[in-house]
Every structure is written in C-alpha cells, then in structure tokens.
What does this fold into?
Amino acid sequence: QLQLVESGGGFVQPGGSLRLSCAASGFTLDYYAVGWFRQAPGKDREGVSCISSSGGYGYYRDSVKGRFTISRDNAKNTVYLEMNNLKPEDTAVYYCAADINVTSVCYIDPHNYDYWGQGTQVTVSS
It folds into this structure.
C-alpha cells in the first residue's frame, strides 16, 4: 500500500519552530519530487515548498522564504520541512505529497501531485 505519513505538527508560540516529517511506505520516495502544502480553515490548499528527487532543486512560496527549509533524506525515505520564526498566519493543516511525473524539478501546483498524506495540524498562537 502506497502511503505518505506526516508528523511533527503541534502548537507553538509565534517565533517558535517545528520540523515536519513526511515518511513514505510502500514505494521509494527518492524517485519523485515532493511538495508540502497547507490548508487553513475556509481557504484553498496552497503550495508551501517543494523539492526535486535529488534535492538539487527547491521552491518556496514568498511568505515562507528565509523561514522554512525543505530537505530530504532518501536513505530514510523521508522529506522534512523545517519551519522557523513561525507566525500565526502559518496556522494550517500541512500535507506532503509526491509527484510521480517529475524528478529533476518540482512544481507547487497541488494538481500535479499523485499521492497525499493525511495532514498534520500546525497551530501558531500566543
């Protein structure tokens, strides 16, 4: 069974940090680009960051540049999203997803992605 499982979400005060993990089972994640997405209540799902299969190409939405870092450990079949200096507007359910159609680049459009995790809640509040 092909599965992505996110973990690492939680409650944090503004300025705090979290590291999200996206672990794959049933398939080898290192063949594919991986993206992180988020969805806040009442809003559309939006792309946050993505990384190519080798890790040599990455993308960040403007609002998280300089605060979030995406990385992957293909030996562990896992992709990470390090989130620093978190803001209340980062509050959302965060999802990871795999795009099986690209390897050397990645795209932040959620419609490109084929396999999705169940999401992990991130809440930033004082």
Remarks:
- DSSP finds no helices and eleven strands in the chain.
- The two ends are 40 Å apart (CA to CA).
